[in-house]
Amino acid sequence: MPEFEHVLWDAVDGVCTITINRPDRLNALDTSVIEELGGAFEEAFVSDEVGVLVLTGAGSKAFVAGADIGMLAEQGVLEGKENSLLGQDLLELIEDGFKPVIAAVNGFALGGGLELALACDFRYASSSASFGLPEVGLGIIPGYGGTQRLPRTVGIGYALEMILSGKRIDAAEALRVGLVNRVTEPDELLDEARATAQAILEKGPLAVRFAKEAVRRGLGMSLKDGLELEADLFGMISSTKDMKEGMQAFLEKRKPDFVGE
Ligand code: COA
After folding, report:
1. Is 155 helix (H, G, I), strand (E, B) or coil?
2. For residue 186, which of 73, 108, 241 has the smallest C-alpha distance?
3. Best mutation site among 27, 60, 69 for ligand 1, i.e. most ligand atoms within 8 A of its Cβ?
4. Domains, the chain, ranges and CATH?
5. pLDDT band at residue 259, thresholds of 50, 70 and 90?
6. Which pLDDT value is given to residue 3?
7. Which of 43, 150, 243, 255 could form a disulfide with 159 if both were Cys (CB 3.0 to 4.6 A apart)?
8. 66: alpha, beta or left, given left = phi > 0 and alpha = psi -120 to 50?
9. What pLDDT, in 10s, does the model give residues 56-86?
């Protein structure tokens, strides 16, 4: 089990919970937290103990209150671009990882915190969560993908309203606009996320992997190319033991026993 200073890792029954643990700074992301998160995700993506990941923040107040403003205050042009790319690389790692990642947003998800949640495959929120991209109020713009992923998630008009005004929205509004899939009581958030993770774990692991890949890669393509990608992956999945097992189990009216081959 890997150990980090500001990131906790906990793998139980195939579900790895990664917790950003810097509560005195509301889990703000500085360079070392971003690097540690990268290390934790890399470990989890290759670990045989892990099938699905849940990402959350320590404490009841914040998921992540943004990039560390102390760090950003120091930056010039070159460091600004480096800081942006460092965060973007982490978020791409999460998005491209072949195992599903669920964000369990337990409080403030501001700036880089919202951007981090947007790179996860889907989001559950505690009723106490709030969301916003306050960067323009600091004289900067979102730099960890917020200008790109928020419009793709909630639509261009709503995203631009959030980005240009810096307004903060609560969990109910986030649910209404499709930013999160579910809102729970604060103390039920992790159980709900883990229950969905367990439901995914019961499915064919290669099928889950290919399905995520089809959606993720397909979104960057024309519809025609995306459909071709889907057909290619559909062909590949048809050569697996898991496909035969899934079909056979249905016909024999029993639960499938998938092996990931
Ligand atoms: N970077 C660095 N430190 C941060 C931080 C951030 N993004 N967000 C919060 N903190 C620190 C605060 O400076 C404070 O430190 P202190 O105890 O040494 O004063 C501590 O975390 C607690 O935050 P505080 O502001 O006292 O809590 P609050 O409940 O009054 O307000 C927020 C909570 C989230 C509304 C407020 O902290 C905030 O606006 N944070 C910045 C959000 C932001 O703009 N993020 C985008 C950055 S690009």
Report:
1. coil
2. 108
3. 69
4. 7-201 (3.90.226.10), 205-251 (1.10.12.10)
5. very high
6. 83
7. 150
8. left
9. 999 999 999 999 999 899 889 999 999 999 9
